[in-house]
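Recap from last week: sequence in, structure out.
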Amino acid sequence: MRRILAPLFLLIVVTGCEKAVDFDLEEAEPKLVVEATIENGQAPVVVLSRSSNFFAQISPELLAQSFVRNAEVYVSNGTLTHRLKEFTVPTGNGYSLTFYTNDPAQPATAFVGALKTGYMLKIIADGNEYTAQTTIPDTTRRLDSIWWKPVPNAVDDEEISLYIRATDRPGFGDYIRYFTKKNSGTYLPPFTSVFDDFIIDGSTYELVVEPGFNRNIERNDEDYYFKRGDTISLKLANIDRATYDFWRTMEYGYNSVGNPFSTPVKVLGNISGGALGYFGGYGVQYKTVVVPK
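Predicted structure tokens:
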């Protein structure tokens, strides 16, 4: 009897001590969100927006209204300083995207990215100043070749896997991010897109490449694999440590959504002045393979 009553008594005590806890979460002031990139051979591109309330219902209207316009945006390569121009382009359904890039009316100070070069970003928005810096590294992770193989025992016999062979230079500290493109689509990152060289330092290695996908829409079955008939392009980018840390922590946050056992993570941006986001340099290489039907 005691063996029965003891657990029952413990259950009554525990349930009797339950207390409803209400959190009064104050609405935080919106912060500037920066997504700024520069690649070798390409003009800098900067997208500015405002953060939304944690419990806000995300919608196309909310996203369209979040873009920051009429900001002053400058990028310097140490020799030239160029004020970027604001552009707005329609995206369909009555919405538009606002971004900043080279001003064609000011060619004397405009420039494109170059390998092994550092860059400074300055933003003046709503009377506040924000700064960041990045470097486009050399392409120290060499992309040797890409090829494909049928997926063994696949339910869909058109499903194939993409493989790469790459070589990492000796010496730690090489970081990469990669993207894939199917046919005439856009380059998209996979679920985990950044990697260091802690394990593969100084070696030539082969691995399977996961397809990239659009995080802004619900993922469908075809996002998980390539298939026969696809023209597949791979974009491999060397990045600096700050860009690696931003995407490493951001993607860990993506993976943790809805998981009650995950560890909280702080996304590590590199924008000063209290803004969110990052300014990242990309030293890119490309390879393409055509998969026959």
